[in-house]
Write a structure and sequence with these properties.
It is a single chain. Helix content is 33%, strand content 29%. It is α+β, with helices and mostly antiparallel strands. It binds adenosine-5'-triphosphate (ATP). Adenosine-5'-triphosphate binds next to strand 13, strand 16, strand 19 and helix 14.
Length: 575
Amino acid sequence: MAKEVTPTRMEKIVSLCKRRGFIFQASEIYGGLNGFWDYGPLGVELKKNLKDFWWQRNVRERDDMEGMDGSIIMNRAVWKASGHEETFSDPMVDCLLSKERFRADQVEEQTGIVHRLIGAIPRIAIVDLPQLPPEAWIRWLFPTALGSVSNVAELSELLHAGIRNQNQTCDEEVLLAAAEKIFPQIERYDFSVLVPTGTPEDKARKVGMAFYESRGVKNPVLIEHEVSHLPVENSRGYHAETGAQLTEPRTFNLMFKSFAGPIESEENMVYLRPETAQAMFVQFRNILDTTRQKLPFGIAQIGKAFRNEINPRNFTFRSREFEQMEIEYFCRPEDGLRLTDYWLEQRLRFYDDIGIPRGKIHIHEIPDGERAFYAVKTYDLEYDFPFGLSELEGIAYRTNYDLSKHIEHSGKPLDYFDEATKERFVPHVVEPSAGTDRTALALICEAFDEETLTDEAGKSDVRTVLRFHPRMAPIKCGVFPLLKNKPDLVAAAREVASNLRAFMNIFYDESGAIGRRYRRQDEAGTPFCVTVDFDTIGENGPEKQGTVTLRHRDSMQQERIAISDLREWLLARIR
Ligand code: ATP
């Protein structure tokens, strides 16, 4: 089904998530907290299905993988060794006008004319000038002349020139007094505005005035730079909406800080982990010794990570608290490149198995010069979200950088002795690192569909349906009695539901018309619903007794199935 790529689609998804209890704004009743989200009853099931399936595929179904669950707060030395304390920062730029902060590499490129200003003066200062009407003074003093004035005497001279230029005269003392009054009111501060090609030039004046007003200049008259109009191409130096100038990039550390223990001292300072990976490097020796694994083998972990992102945005896509599903797959140096491609294939298969087909994942190989300096090969797996192609997962061949750093800082032997070759070396590692929340969001975006249905009378309406893969669906099966006021139907339906509950998440619903109940489950993404009717309880003869109507979410087709077959039938489709 064609899916239009517009913000409206995203807005609909966000509103469905709230309406149906997938995702809520965290601390909503207090106005929320930017970058934090709560998963509601359906959201938590979706995320749990995702994490369980990831664990099943990557840990339980493999004998070369071990799981672990590390603590969120670790010794600060870990982050010193990993380089996070020093370098886990993003270059940020601030908008001089709105004070908003952006990641420098995420600012939209713009082409147009840059209008350069060097300052402003409150209009009232000019209104007070002698001899000439204010507009004449403004024409004379601005745009450029005032910029070169560096003291009162020069300003007084400039005023003279203005008067002479109009063939008038004025007493020198009057002009000097005027200059003395005006001079301190000149606000000198360089500021420029980019007016994109095709946008009216007046925008520059409006934005300029807003900027100097924000610096306390009332009703500002703008002073232009000598070279006031400069054409630029693909510049990232200006705010995409207003065109206001951005600051030069500055770095900003993304780790949240706290204190372990009652004293808020430098020694007690700790960080909330910004990734789960480090615990797997730090526990490499313990896991190797306790499991007796041989290379290649991996450690897998799912857990929370925290980053004080400057611009949390795109719903849960960029949050400040999120979950990661990470693997560190250790190997011999000569196997690193091959295993990176191996993991790429494994991970694509995984996405396919949860309902995000291969064709929907864009593989971006990070070119030389853009990778982390220790990484030899990196793939970003990107999904086409309604807000654009964005990273779901990174797969990086990180050489032996991490273990070597921990050996260097801890002095502990995190190397490996190969029994077969009698070699001792520091293993290399391939790291597939996926975001749980981003994948959950991709699942919702991929599943979201609006289908126009036309009934026999020609009346059409729109059915909202989440076409989750049954594996991921929060509710696997809805169970309904046809009518809620028939105790036999209710009792039979409750029994069907309770017999399934031990095996899967079931939703029992007896309220409202049956069609409405189906639609509610369509919106929740429930792949199957069963209805207990009069046939089930044998009221229409023995033939269909013990069978229920099974309704398919995607096709809306209905079929009859024996209650005794139901469990196996469902299990075969949701596992
Ligand atoms: P980005 O470039 O989008 O900030 P990243 O390359 O810094 O991401 P990694 O450090 O490679 O991300 O983290 C691995 C994965 O963790 C990402 O692919 C993503 O799925 C998830 N992730 C990272 N930051 C966030 C965040 N702020 N919110 C949600 N998920 C995140």
